[in-house]
Amino acid sequence: MKWIFDLTFEQLKEEITAAGIKKFTAAQIFQWLYEKNIQDINAWSNIGKTTHAALAKQYDTTLNKIIAKKEDHAGAKKILFQLSDGNRIESVLISEKDHYTFCISTQVGCALNCRFCATGRMGFKRNLSPGEILSQVLCLQKEIPGYTGKLNIVLMGMGEPLLNYENLKLALEIITSEKGIGISPRNITLSTAGILEKIRRFEKDFPRVKISFSLNAPENVLREALMPISRKEKLPDILEYFKATAADRKHRITFEYVLIKGVNDSLDHARLTSNLLRGIPCKINLIPFNPNGSIGFETPDPGDVEIFSDYLHSKGYTVITRWSKGRDIKSACGQLAAEE
Ligand code: SF4
């Protein structure tokens, strides 16, 4: 039996036509699965009972299994899923003032091994399929029944999204399509540690999706120590690309900077960061490191965070410090899965 969420609209249409079902049924199925978010085949009232039976024989329409939910004091809810092969991933639902944000995973574990990240410690297990990526959105929507307001999606959970490019692309096509979940690409942000060739390609494929770059250090030597990917993907090359393409981009790049006590949180680091990003239309998210017993880093002093932030402000940058929800999300990505 096939898992229906891994099929594109065209694939589904082709398969059901070959099985003797009218091809317009594909649009009805997509509407039930994605727009109405109802996966019980027997509830698909505009499709006949004989077709129900044929579809039930051919397709598995059950979503990923939720095995744990945890809410933090600031209203972020982490959801732990068990996949069909027993692997586990997490998503996070964040309640903001006037909207919700869904933080979605793209891989089981991660190969990039950033030193401050719990997911990196797990190592890489496998890529998520298109359906495993997009069905996280459906599951999180079920956590807020009846809500029809603004939704943001951040591809910032477990894994480096650009290292699972083809599956991510298929998932985003259904997430953003009017036939699918119908979320505007402008409300989606891809967070990356920086794979330059893939960033170029992604910006061509999805020009309206926002890019968030995980900076974390203002020079390549320190960045290499924190993020081994920097040995291959050099910081100056990536920043040069952001500068050279700034005029073609409709949004500002977000630079994420996990502040770690005594490592990258000094005023000198702030000065270097300011000089480094000069000329790139951007926002800076400062994320004080979220302590984790198995990672030997510490949370910076609030005073040092303020000095860092004030300096960048004084140089004209838009700076947001994420002490609460953001901190739980990014610097602890993978933590729930790792704990479980
Ligand atoms: S921070 Fe992101 S890219 Fe780095 S190891 Fe964690 S999940 Fe992977």
Describe the overall structure.
There is one protein chain. This protein is of the alpha/beta class and 340 residues long. It folds into two domains: 2-60, DNA polymerase, domain 1 (Orthogonal Bundle), CATH 1.10.150; 65-339, TIM Barrel, CATH 3.20.20.70. Helices cover 36% and strands 21% of the residues. Strands 3-4-5-6-9-10-11-12-13-14 form a ten-stranded mixed β-sheet, sandwiched between helices. A two-stranded parallel ribbon has the order 1-2. Strands 7-8 form a two-stranded antiparallel ribbon. Helix 10 (267-277) links the parallel strand 12 (253-259) and strand 13 (282-288). Helix 5 crosses helix 6 (165-176). The longest helix has 13 residues, at 130-142. It is elongated and about 70 Å long. The two termini are 29 Å apart. The relative contact order is 0.12. Residues 325-332 have low confidence and may be disordered. It binds iron/sulfur cluster. The site of iron/sulfur cluster has 12 residues, from helix 4.
What is the secondary structure topology, with strand pairs?
Layout: E1 2-3, H1 9-18, H2 25-35, H3 49-58, E2 59-60, E3 65-71, E4 76-82, E5 88-95, E6 100-103, E7 107-109, H4 118-122, E8 124-127, H5 130-142, E9 151-155, H6 165-176, E10 188-192, H7 196-205, E11 210-214, H8 220-226, H9 235-244, E12 253-259, H10 267-277, E13 282-288, H11 302-314, E14 318-321, H12 325-331, H13 335-339
Bound molecules: iron/sulfur cluster.
